[in-house]
Write a structure and sequence with these properties.
Order of helices and strands: HHHEEHEHHHHHHHHEHEHHHHHEHEEHHH
Number of helices: 22
Shape: globular
Distance between the termini: 49 Å
Length: about 475
């Protein structure tokens, strides 16, 4: 198949202007920026980020951008992007790209916001004086490029074990960085060629510190690609296309009919949209978490009264959510036993539950061992384009309680969070990291982003 995805992406990046952005893309974009900024702050106190901060301090270098969690310390843009990107995905709480394609496994495309947001934040500081309008334009451009490439590639990319947020996220970061830097023509094409050789991430590392590092490296590598190309570093100018191009090598090609969608004709952030997550775990688990929350609250279930929980789902949940019993808080994000146990025990699953101390506690161990997952043939036969599951709870007095997950899950485009809901999430993300005054400033800056004379103020607002 002959494609010109690289050329079309470059044309789109060069031509994108704030004045031409759809109003709905701007509205959703502001919300995604606020969500992402809160997640940068939330991730700053994770052990994995402390390691990256220490490494960045030891590495040193040109003071381009603030080091998250480093006070007034500044480091080279690419290193700052690595720390930001990893922090933004550390809790697996960042937004998820939506697809309406039944061939895709729902929710397993890319987390579109963090790589381009991290790239825009560090390049904005490196350049200085970047307006809110230019910042938002670069961010939305990066999200659009990342999302379309992810949507167009065959589902084999993810099914083979590649992590889209690490691979395709690299192009989102590259696009955002290149847009702010004003790259055009051959230099812009070469930036994509460099990025294509850097794009990486494999799913075997889910449930470890390295999973969020995939997103950190996507941000870092996208920024590096743009900077190197600006200096004259060369690469294949059609690296997304052809027999040895990224889409063929990593995904087995693209769905040809989808290429007519083009970049920016209908913005992916608007249609099919994005999911802003209410829980810090894989999007495919959220429907079941809400179903369990409804079941235990409406029936006022005492955890001590639970004899057994049987969770029925398809492979689109049970394959990626792969830990039967979680041994730590990172594995808990990919364990239905752990996630459902949190809801039964605390009626919530947030930052306070995702700690090793809680996940490894006696009450969690006991409850996890009462939960059994089942690959349900009837659910599996209905396909993987929508997340479906069913919960059957048996109480010690013999009663049975059942709940079926709502396909119109909370946070998705069909049932989105309100702005007040999003603010409540920001509070949950930043509790103990940012004070109330700083959060109010963050709301004002994000919701009024296009009016900021200098968007780099955002980097200071998220410093813990």
């Amino acid at each position: 198949m002959t494609t010109q995805i690289t050329r079309d992406a470059c044309d789109f990046i060069q031509s994108s202007r704030f004045e031409a952005l759809p109003a709905e893309a701007i509205r959703i974009g502001r919300r995604c920026v606020l969500d992402g900024l809160a997640l940068f702050a939330a991730g700053s106190d994770e052990e994995s980020i402390a390691i990256l901060i220490e490494d960045a301090r030891d590495t040193g270098g040109k003071p381009d951008a603030l080091l998250l969690g480093g006070g007034d310390v500044k480091v080279p843009a690419a290193i700052a992007a690595r720390v930001l990107g990893t922090a933004g995905h550390a809790h697996d709480w960042d937004d998820t790209q939506v697809s309406r394609d039944p061939a895709h496994i729902y929710g397993l495309l890319t987390h579109p916001t963090i790589p381009p947001l991290a790239a825009a934040l560090v390049i904005g500081q490196k350049l200085g004086g970047v307006s809110g309008r230019d910042f938002l334009t670069a961010f939305l451009t990066g999200v659009e490029v990342e999302s379309k490439i992810s949507e167009w590639m065959l589902p084999d990319h993810y099914k083979r074990g590649l992590h889209s947020s690490g691979t395709v996220g690299t192009f989102g970061a590259c696009a955002a960085a290149a847009k702010l830097m004003g790259l055009e023509g051959p230099k812009l094409a070469h930036a994509f060629g460099i990025a294509a050789s850097m794009a990486a991430g494999i799913r075997t590392n889910f449930g470890t510190m390295t999973k969020p590092l995939h997103v950190g490296r996507a941000a870092e590598n996208g920024v590096t690609a743009a900077i190197l190309a600006s200096r004259g570093f060369t690469a294949d100018p059609e690296a997304l296309d052809g027999r040895w191009g990224f889409t063929m090598v990593q995904g087995g090609g693209v769905t040809e009919a989808k290429l007519t969608q083009g970049f920016g004709k209908v913005w992916s952030i608007v249609d099919p949209g994005v999911s802003i997550k209410p829980y810090p775990s894989g999007i495919v688990t959220h429907q079941a978490l809400d179903a369990m929350l409804k079941l235990v609250t409406e029936n006022d279930v005492d955890p001590a009264a639970v004899e057994r929980v049987d969770f029925h789902a398809g492979s689109n949940i049970l394959n990626p959510i792969r830990y039967p019993i979680a041994a730590n808080h990172l594995q808990a994000k990919f364990s239905m036993a752990a996630l459902l146990s949190m809801i039964v025990l605390h009626r919530r699953a947030g930052r306070r539950e995702f700690t090793d101390a809680f996940v490894q506690s006696a009450e969690m161990s006991d409850m996890q061992h009462r939960i059994v997952t089942h690959l349900d043939p009837a659910i599996e036969a209905m396909g993987t384009d929508i997340i479906r599951s069913r919960i059957e709870m048996t109480l010690k007095d013999g009663r049975k309680l059942t709940a079926t997950a709502d396909e119109r899950y909370r946070g998705g485009p069909d049932n989105p969070m309100s702005d007040d809901d999003l603010k409540a999430k920001v509070v949950a993300c930043t509790d103990g990291v940012l004070d109330a005054e700083r959060r109010e400033a963050l709301y004002a800056a994000a919701f009024g982003l296009e009016d900021l004379p200098d968007a780099t103020v955002l980097a200071r607002l998220i410093q813990p």
